[in-house]
Protein 1
Amino acid sequence: MKTKIAVMVSGGGTNLQALLDAQKSGILTAGEIVLVIASNAKAYAITRAEKAGVPAVVCSRKELGSQEAFEAAISQALADHGVELIVLAGFMSILSENFTSQWPRRILNVHPSLIPSFCGQRFYGMKVHEAALEYGVKVTGATVHFVNEVPDGGEILLQKAVDILPGDTPEVLQKRVMEQAEWILLPQATQMVSEEIGKGKVQ
Ligand code: GAR
């Protein structure tokens, strides 16, 4: 039986698309995306889910009023769909320890730098690439890691380095990091962990 996966998103959803494509192309075989959870109703990722025939629900921290209500709504959606593995793919809301502790080694995140550089609560999305360019590093990359109570602090699963080139803008660099690292690593790590969970189910 395939591991049931929820992908949590906030924006464009290109990493969600990479996971959906990986299912089609046979890179992701041990798991199946059964649910997409978006932190806001405007996320284009919802359209990607709909196009792929995957149910999508919106859980907005702002609309639900409190962290507790937000996480309760997420937990309910996960339970309704029998989810066993959560993949954060550009999910920009913070999950509390109360939530993450219920999913040990069951939440993956993709971060667009080589952790421990340019990571933690202040660094997300384009800000990560702006910071790398501002610092002047010549190599950046992406990291897939397990999620625990420390923002970007969980065990690292996969990393890949990407060159920074003269004249790079944050937008150009973001695209290169996605193409050369994120869209490859995230499906690979999701397959690895889905397989592990699958083996556990057999025991
Ligand atoms: C990706 O670059 C992802 O690594 C980053 O946001 C982008 C989302 O793009 N995530 C973080 O910064 C999390 N700290 P997408 O919606 O097109 O997948």
Protein 2
Amino acid sequence: MTLKVLSQDPGPIGVFDSGYGGLTVLRELRKQLPQYDYLYLGDNARAPYGTRSFDVVYRYTRQAVAYLFQQGCQLVILACNTASAKALRTIQQNDLPQWDAQRRVLGVIRPTAEAVGLLTQTGHVGILATSGTILSQSYELEIQKLHPRLKVVGQACPLWATLVENFETDSPGAEYFVGKDLHSLLSQDALIDTVILGCTHYPLLLPLLEKLTPKDIRLINQGKYVSLSLQDYLQRHPEMERRCTKHGSCRYLTTESPSVFDATASHFMDAHIESRHTDLNTD
Ligand code: DGL
């Protein structure tokens, strides 16, 4: 895939997710780093990604990143664990050098894996994520590299992102599936004291998760740790910091109908949102 000549002018920070989940990261980014401009892209028309093959997730994510670069983003955050697990490395190693070696794409798994070592007391950690993220073993690998003493077990939750995309976050059906997968995770290891919500859609199920999780278990909402990590990254990379515009704005793009996106996103973001439609299947 080749890109049109890319502008070197500073631009907004791109935030990408398969659908609504990345809004949970965007909300934290805007809270902790409000000075920057953001361009959010939700591939709602093709969500969920969680059960799709490696090749498909890579192809869709690559299209999204290329699109955000063409919109002027110099830095893109994959606010999606599935895309971070299945596409980030290949994009960084194969596509970026061809497109523009100065641009950067960052994911959400590494910052969360870094944080978990400081949060667990027992050293036993659980991961709730999409089938794709669990099968990739990305969390296990990152955590083992950073905190080799931790014991990690994971549970795939194949329906949770679909529940969120369909606005079914507190229905009896949601309670059944969330309870079932949570129980499967916790019954693997009685010493788990920290559970990573390893899919950016899952914080939208937090009221239900908090109701169903024993009180002595901490649920990790990764948005905060991704924001802190980005703040640290921009401090360490002033050349990239200068390439991010700062007017405090936020724009939204969706591959679905904007009216559907706006209603749901406005609810999740607790703000009035007006998105624009875009198509991504360009290669
Ligand atoms: N929000 C995404 C994640 O963090 C993807 C969910 C999905 O599309 O299945 O994994």
